[in-house]
Amino acid sequence: MVGLVVLILSSLAILDYNPFRGSSFTPYAGDQGIAPFQETLNHVHERGGFAFWNYPEQRSGVRKHGPVNVSTLPYPEVLYESKNYAGFAAIYGDRITVTDPGKHWDRILTEYCEGKREKPAWGISTADFHEDGRLGLKLGAFPTTFLVREFSKPAILDALRQGRMYCSRGDGKTWPQLDYFNVLGPNGEKADMGETLTTAGLPLIKFRVSYKGDKKVPVKIHIVRGGTPSFPNCQRRNSPGIRTPGRGGSRWTDDLLPSCGHPKASRFKPYLCEI
Questions:
Q1: What is each CA distance from 52 to 89, 112, 162, 172, in whole angstroms?
Q2: What pTM value is reported for the model?
């Protein structure tokens, strides 16, 4: 009986040995950098899947869990070290800085505009939800809203692939809502959310923000151009007041890349709205 167990284990070891093993990486080889993760990302990408980096700056990764010491340091650098992933958690229940103007996300988008990346990275909301009321949160406080023509699995997956979505944070009952967002070029070119617009002139950015809920609140809009935030004058058209408020608890971010690729082109990305 012992001999049979040894034979089975030996056979499994042979199957897991090169050239039959699934990966050339091993957890016993020390720090191998981004390479093992990139292999996984490539595997998912080549098969038409979507891979997202989750919680890139989560602070709770270093703690003691019973007799085990858990140590997962924040890893925001993987966003620009890796490629072939669909996006990352841009809003979740922790402090995040990679979406700040000029930092990791803008660096990735700039590389896309410069032709160094095949596609941009989209931002989604995620939540490590355990129970209602924990940390003052409720289920549904971190929604990712998809813009689709029909409620179906293919439509949702296509929106996820094309970046026709935006993420936000609320209290589970109310949250900011982006009714529409598009960019118009000086010659009539148009780009909707998730699309790319190349133009030599300054585009016209059109959007409308509303608020799902009974309470009306002021909204602060940041438009990021080339990694630098600007504060445009917005025209109010039957929408909530767009003005500078005090700091509050809700925010949303959007992933549109309206223009890039031309030496004199302008790239705009709507960045952050705090309520």
A1: 7, 17, 14, 23
A2: 0.75
